């Protein structure tokens, strides 16, 4: 959900949609405790609005529908019409990555609040 909200804010949800074809897939993490869920790197290619061939790679974990894709299989992406080499894939967002993002945003917010309260309690003011 956080990924979708960020995509709306940044305009990525309005980029042009196209089909990407997997060129190769390689498992890069086996899901041990410190690695997070098992992960795969997908190398893919797609055609932009001018029919030029573009390529990219993305790391997806086992909590996404893209994890089991293999060569020649397809999935949907969005690309920036102003810079076609930039792409966004909503299916690559997993609950694990969204949790990690929410955790760090929450941690940063609490840290800022604590610093401001400390400064206020010591009567330090911004100049």
Give your account of this protein's structure.
With 127 residues, this protein is an alpha+beta fold. The protein has one domain. The protein has 2 helices and 5 strands, in the order αβββββα. The longest helix is centred in the last third of the chain and has 27 residues. The two termini are 39 Å apart. The model has no long low-confidence stretch (mean pLDDT 83).
Jot down its keywords.
single chain, 127 residues, alpha+beta, 5-stranded antiparallel beta sheet, 2 helices, 5 strands
What is the secondary structure topology, with strand pairs?
Blueprint: H1 2-10, E1 16-29, E2 39-47, E3 53-61, E4 74-79, E5 87-88, H2 95-121
Strand order of the largest sheet: 3-2-1-4-5
Please tally the β strands and state the result: 5
In round numbers, the mean pLDDT is 83
| Total individual domains | 1
Largest pleated sheet? 5 strands, antiparallel
What is the H-and-E element order?
HEEEEEH
Helix content: 25-40%
Overall outline: flat
Cα end-to-end separation? 39 Å
Q: Count up the helices.
A: 2
In short:
The protein has 127 residues and is α+β, with helices and mostly antiparallel strands. It has one domain.
């Amino acid at each position: 959900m956080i990924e979708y909200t960020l995509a709306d804010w940044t305009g990525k949800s309005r980029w042009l949609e196209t089909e990407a074809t997997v060129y190769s897939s390689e498992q890069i993490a086996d899901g041990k405790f410190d690695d997070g869920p098992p992960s795969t790197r997908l190398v893919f290619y797609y055609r932009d609005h001018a029919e030029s061939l573009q390529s990219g790679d993305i790391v997806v974990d086992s909590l996404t529908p893209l994890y089991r894709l293999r060569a020649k299989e397809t999935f949907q992406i969005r690309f920036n019409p102003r810079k076609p080499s930039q792409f966004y894939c909503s299916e690559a967002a997993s609950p694990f990555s969204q949790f990690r993002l929410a955790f760090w945003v929450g941690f940063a917010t609490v840290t800022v609040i604590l610093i401001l309260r400390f400064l206020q309690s010591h009567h330090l003011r911004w100049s």
